Amino acid sequence: MKVNTDQKLIEELLTRGVENIYPKREFLEAKLKSGEPLTLYTGYDPTGPTLHIGHAITMRKLRQFQDLGHKVIMLIGDFTGMIGDPTDKTSARQQLTHKQVLQNCQNYRKQASKILNFSGKNKVEVKFNSKWLAKMNFASILELTSHFTVQRMMERDMFQERLKEAKPIYVHEFMYPVMQAYDSVAMNVDGEVGGNDQTFNMLAGRDLMKDLKNKEKFVLTTKLLVDATGKKMGKSEGNMISLVDSPEEMFGKVMSWTDEMIVKGFELCTSVPMVEINSINSDLQNGVNPRDLKIHLAGEVVKTFLGSKEAEQAKEHFIATFSKKQTPEEMPEIKPSAYDIVTVLLESKICLSRTDARRQIEQGGVKVNEEKITAFDFVIKPGNVVQKGSRFFVRVK
């Protein structure tokens, strides 16, 4: 496939949603303009069964490279996923078995196909890093680690925090960036794309490529979708958008984002032109109702990942249900193993755990037939509608 060197498309790739480019923007720009086909990748550790919007941000950047004719690899970290990336973690991750990791990623390709193209002449290639990492012997691991220093590893913020709090730092956590670095060498890539929080790991790979292959690897980091405090979306906040969410769920979660996330949400998660996004930013600064802009954003996010028809239906559902304070006519149904409110919340997956369910009840976030519930042992009757917050409903059978 011939490489496209269109200047406007290259400029969009180099700027939209981009935090940093190493060694520098001019290096990558020259490569893109030369017409030379590049090979690049992003790694995805299967620590859970669904890809989410954070993954989608890097995939959208990969798709820009793919559309220009460059070779894209989606690397499944089935080996690194067993260890767990320590980035931003104040304690060691719980290690997973290879069986758990493979089970988690069994639908990744299908989910990623909402963004990446896995067919045609320039299809995305899927690779697994256990192919090379699982085969390394102790001698080769020792040789590999000789290219890294403890001082360099200890520069990482989360390790410094653990030292201050007297929390343990395990040796296998030092190995994570070493393994990710070797991924680049094993695949002999020209570049790597990842979130800005992955800068340390990706630059480790860049250094290793120089040492072992005398090759200059580019690293492109994308902006993170965070609130004003720098906090990323997560399961505990209930606003993590999964690529398997329904249109209504996706729309509702975007509506729960803080106002500070609106402009960045447009930039990172939609195809709205940057000229229009700059205008939206001006509107926001000039006092336009953020709710109206957020409805526009939610519609564009659903449109991007699920389609135009689904976006319009989700918008209508949101307005009818939440703007007009109506209970939706259609909702999931559940026949629970027991009819106490905590069991219903847990088995309907409205809450992540019994502790989460009790916390939601204590905070007044749970209703049955529009009446607030305060007792953990409240008994639900068949036909009752259980509601958490303004977005989650389930009818009990």
UniProtKB/TrEMBL annotation:
Catalytic activity: tRNA(Tyr) + L-tyrosine + ATP = L-tyrosyl-tRNA(Tyr) + AMP + diphosphate + H(+)
GO MF entry, a single one: RNA binding
This protein's GO CC annotations: cytosol
Keyword field contains ATP-binding: yes
SUPFAM superfamilies in alphabetical order: Alpha-L RNA-binding motif (SSF55174), Nucleotidylyl transferase (SSF52374)
Gene Ontology biological process terms in this record: tyrosyl-tRNA aminoacylation
InterPro entries given in the database record: aa-tRNA-synth_I_CS, aa-tRNA-synth_Ic, Rossmann-like_a/b/a_fold, S4_RNA-bd_sf, SYY-like_C, Tyr-tRNA-ligase, Tyr-tRNA-ligase_bac-type
Keywords recorded for this protein, A-Z: Aminoacyl-tRNA synthetase, ATP-binding, Ligase, Nucleotide-binding, Protein biosynthesis, RNA-binding
PROSITE patterns referenced in this protein's UniProt entry, alphabetically: AA_TRNA_LIGASE_I, S4
Domain Tyrosine--tRNA ligase SYY-like C-terminal residues, every copy: 327-385
Record-listed E.C. numbers: 6.1.1.1
Family the entry assigns: Belongs to the class-I aminoacyl-tRNA synthetase family.
Entry protein name: Tyrosine--tRNA ligase
Species this chain originates from: Candidatus Magasanikbacteria bacterium GW2011_GWC2_37_14
